[in-house]
Automatic annotation (TrEMBL):
<dbReference type="InterPro" id="IPR018958">
    <property type="entry name" value="Knr4/Smi1-like_dom"/>
</dbReference>
<dbReference type="Pfam" id="PF09346">
    <property type="entry name" value="SMI1_KNR4"/>
</dbReference>
<feature type="domain" description="Knr4/Smi1-like">
    <location>
        <begin position="13"/>
        <end position="137"/>
    </location>
</feature>
<protein>
    <submittedName>
        <fullName>SMI1/KNR4 family protein</fullName>
    </submittedName>
</protein>
<dbReference type="InterPro" id="IPR037883">
    <property type="entry name" value="Knr4/Smi1-like_sf"/>
</dbReference>
């Protein structure tokens, strides 16, 4: 995947050791394309990542830093129990949109569907069946 096509600047900082640490800490095996993204850029902020879901349109503002450190705006921070009030179990925020909705992996599904979580309404909406399909939705 050429992440630069989406306006993502290369900023390598995630390596196999970091991936192993995060996956062991969170007890999650991340999808290969997501790992490709975070190894290309540890905190991706795509310029071209608008996408449609549930008759709505939004855009990714930023992906959370892929780090085992439990500090704000890392995937490990969002994986803490009760980190986000009302977030269902096995839903992991990996990014946010311009309206502060959380873009998440749903680990309750076999292919780790992508969903969007509105923390105000406490509503989870389906976006894509997996991360590959999610990336294919991105446009200007």
């Amino acid at each position: 995947m050429n992440w630069e096509d989406y306006g993502i600047a290369e900023d390598r900082g995630v390596n196999n050791t970091t991936i192993k640490m995060v996956e062991e800490k969170l007890q999650i095996k991340f999808p290969p394309l997501y790992l490709d993204l975070v190894t290309f850029c540890k905190e991706p902020m795509p310029e071209f990542a608008n996408f449609a879901y549930d008759n709505e349109e939004t855009a990714i503002s930023e992906f959370f830093e892929f780090s085992p450190d439990v500090r704000p705006y890392t995937v490990a921070w969002y994986a803490r129990p009760n980190a986000i009030q009302g977030l269902p179990k096995n839903i992991l925020p990996i990014a946010r949109d311009a309206g502060d909705y959380l873009i998440c992996f749903n680990y309750n599904t076999p292919n780790y569907e992508i969903c969007i979580y509105d923390s105000t309404e406490r509503v989870l909406k389906h976006v894509a069946d997996n991360f590959d399909e999610f990336v294919r939705l991105w446009h200007e």
